Amino acid sequence: MSLLITDECINCDVCEPECPNNAIAQGEEIYEIDPNLCTQCVGHYDEPQCQQVCPVDCILIDPAHPETQEELHQKYLVITGKA
C-alpha cells in the first residue's frame, strides 16, 4: 500500500527530502504523497523514511491504494529503471 499524509500534518518540511522516489510534495494545505510513486521505501530502505522522521506521526497506510510487498517492489523497479 502507498502511504498518505493526514490533516494532522504541520508542514514541517522534514518528510519531503527523505523520500527516495520524490513521491511527497507540498499540496494546497499540507504535504501529499503520490500513490503512483510511493513504494513505502521498498527497494531503498527497510522502513518508510517519511514515517521515521515525521514528528506528529501523521503518515499512515493508504487503504485506498492496497499493494503487496511484491507490487511495491515491482513499482520500485519501474521507478528506478531497473525493471
Automatic annotation (TrEMBL):
Domain of life according to the entry: Bacteria
Keyword presence, Oxidoreductase: no
GO cellular component terms, A-Z: cytoplasm
Annotated ranges, domain 4Fe-4S ferredoxin-type: 1-29, 31-64
UniProt keyword list: 4Fe-4S, Electron transport, Iron, Iron-sulfur, Metal-binding, Repeat, Transport
Transmembrane residue ranges: none
PROSITE patterns for this protein: 4FE4S_FER_1, 4FE4S_FER_2
GO molecular function: 4 iron, 4 sulfur cluster binding; metal ion binding
Protein name: 4Fe-4S dicluster domain
